[in-house]
What we know:
The protein is an all-alpha fold.
Amino acid sequence: MEWLEPGYWVLFLLSLAAATLLPLGSEWLVLLMLAHSFSPALVLLLATLGNTLGSYINYGLGFYAHDWLKRHQKLEGAGWRRAERWFQRYGIWSLLLAWVPVVGDPLTLIAGMLKAPWRRVWWLILLSKLGRYSVLVGVFVLLE
Length: 144
């Protein structure tokens, strides 16, 4: 039961936290674990799931914060209007960029605030995160 090793759960939790609005990164731990012979498949799986769930936390925060912010007239600034226009222009497909540092976290929050359909959001975020970690793990394994 290799997946019960604490290192895997630290990776899962760090990946989850890194996908929220907290300024963290998980790539360094992925590479460190691979360098120490952790299972590439488990590293890929747990980093992807943790990061996907973290982004979904952002989505949920945005989904529920929208009504509160609207009630308190906090969504009337130029920055919000610009973000709303950008998301409406590029649509839900922009969530394929959820893996991009700095940009991805606010994108998932905005998707929630604009009440994007959660099933589509889930799959697009999952594909985005899986793509990022697949490249990272794949390149490491190929160069090893």
